[in-house]
Amino acid sequence: MIEMKNVSKTFDRYQAVENVNLSIEKGSIYGLIGSNGAGKTTLLKLLAGIYRQDRGEVSINEQAVYENLDQKQKLFFIPDQPYFLPHYTIKQMAQFYKSIYPSWSDERFQKLAKWFDIDLKKRIHTFSKGWQRQAAFILAFSTLPQILILDEPMDGLDPVVRKKVKNLMIQDVADREMTILISSHNLREIEDICDHIGIIHRGSLLLEKELDDLKSDIHKIQVAYKEGMPEDSLEGLYMLHREKRGSVFICIVRGKEEKIAEQIRKTKPVIFDLLPLTLEEIFIYEMGDIGYAIKNVIV
Amino acid sequence: MFELDMRSRKPIYEQLVDKLKELIINEVLKPDEQLPSVRTLAQQLTINPNTIQKAYRELENQSYIYSLPGKGSFVNSFNLVKDSEKLTNIKKELEKNILEALYLGVTAKELIHLIEELDASKEGGDKDDRNEKR
């Protein structure tokens, strides 16, 4: 169980994270999404014990993380640009991690190296971006961490490798109840594997929910009527967005599916569709609701 | 065993529940047959094991499956639930299609006539089936 209570962090005068409360259950895959510069990376680094918070508590299993060796041995953090010691080969990096992580598994390391088909004796800095990231994953999964923290993990990986990495994650979550925290902009990527989602904007956590609940609470509806839209048809519905394309109305509505469908059907529309939203759309409309909207700008 | 549509808007959890129901109703998964373990299915489909757990729990609540601690999940042999579920599905589908037909200008009378005709031919159809079996 990972917990953050009223956590704040400032850099000079810039407030990067403000009063964040967050909790992640063991064995869950948690996706952190947010606008650019929202404080995602800062949040991850606080959780990984790299930064010290100015205020509040950051804890794993009720123990503070910062400067806590016991806890840090159980977690692995892959930053958005994986870091390796200069001129090290993967094999040397493996020796290094082996000396730090008591849970390191040589057997797994060999298997992973074979599976990813990577040259262990080549210096990592000569690798391409994608290969470097694969090397980071091999090393991370060889430490058998209880908590895996990933900042933009799929960046620069091809679809085959993505699938491999996802498969590894799933294996460890299913077998060892590993907890994963992922931040990403690629919402499609996150949508597939996460069960919980947190949305962060300007340093504060906007919402934190189970993905399925998030999705069942917001819908896209398309309606058309023979003679224009009746005035009262959408009364009492929580509307996030509404637009008209030709004679079809497209609305984004919050609420329970059955209730919305029932109300709209009563008004006898000619066309009526109710669709769940993709995570990407949810993100856009939730952000729009607090004023971070996409405006059509001509430059 | 089956594929999920990762690009669909429908939540994976719902797709999973529906897919498994379909397999159980159509008896692709036979009564008392063991369902794949959460781990295997998660690996096969590359989806979150928690999602599968949740889908299994939902199916258990709706008594499609039962679980034995330490052994796994199995298909329930209780047919009544399946039939009633099938019926509601068919009714929903019909409602949609009939509404469409009405909008397209088919009269209620014509529809009733059609139903009566089908009902009459159903008797014949049954007989044919029986003949085939012989």
Automatic annotation (TrEMBL), chain A:
InterPro entries: AAA+_ATPase, ABC_transporter-like_ATP-bd, ABC_Transporter_VariousFunc, P-loop_NTPase. Signal peptide: none annotated. Pfam families: ABC_tran. GO terms for molecular function: ATP binding; ATP hydrolysis activity. Keywords: ATP-binding, Nucleotide-binding, Transport. Residues 2-227 form the ABC transporter domain. The keyword Protease does not apply. SUPFAM superfamilies: P-loop containing nucleoside triphosphate hydrolases. SMART domains: AAA. PANTHER family: ABC TRANSPORTER ATP-BINDING PROTEIN ALBC-RELATED. This is ABC transporter ATP-binding protein. It comes from Peribacillus cavernae.
Automatic annotation (TrEMBL), chain B:
InterPro entries: Tscrpt_reg_HTH_GntR, WH-like_DNA-bd_sf, WH_DNA-bd_sf. The keyword DNA-binding applies. Pfam families: GntR (PF00392). The keyword Chloroplast does not apply. Residues 10-78 form the HTH gntR-type domain. It comes from the Bacteria. Keywords: DNA-binding, Transcription, Transcription regulation. GO terms for molecular function: DNA binding; DNA-binding transcription factor activity. This is GntR family transcriptional regulator. It comes from Peribacillus cavernae.
